[in-house]
Amino acid sequence: MSNREAGYYWTKVDGEWEPAFHQGDGDWRIFGGWAEDDWFEEIGPRIPAPDEPWQAVPKEPTTEMSCAAVDTFREMLSAPSIYAAMLATAPKP
Fold first, then answer.
1. β-pair partners for 81
2. Residue 1: how many other CB atoms lie within 10 Å
3. Quick one: residue 49, left, alpha or beta (phi over 0 = left, psi -120 to 50 = alpha)?
4. How many whole angstroms from its chain centre is CA 9?
5. How far is CA 33 from CA 7, 60, 62, 65, in A?
6. Residues of the chain with pLDDT > 70: what percent?
7. Best CA proximity match to 31, nearest among 21, 39, 23, 40
8. Minimal CA–CA distance to 54: which of 2, 23, 93, 10?
9. Each residue of 39-76: pLDDT tens digit?
């Protein structure tokens, strides 16, 4: 039995990444049937559901994000506050 949370995950099959649904009970629902963990070459991260709190951000921080981090750090706030300031200034898709 797997300790993975139910939901979609990135999985690698035949060298290509594709989403697959993990039932939460150890079984995977894939196109054409069911699979177990060892069927995949690699299992990547879980894909957040649209109603989960997440935000797409650039791979590298923008100048605005970096400035927000420095300004927040100067105020001697915690790492979560710095991260929140960076997210607030991240460009919106």
1. none
2. 7
3. beta
4. 9
5. 16, 39, 43, 44
6. 96
7. 21
8. 93
9. 899 999 888 777 777 777 777 888 888 888 888 887 77
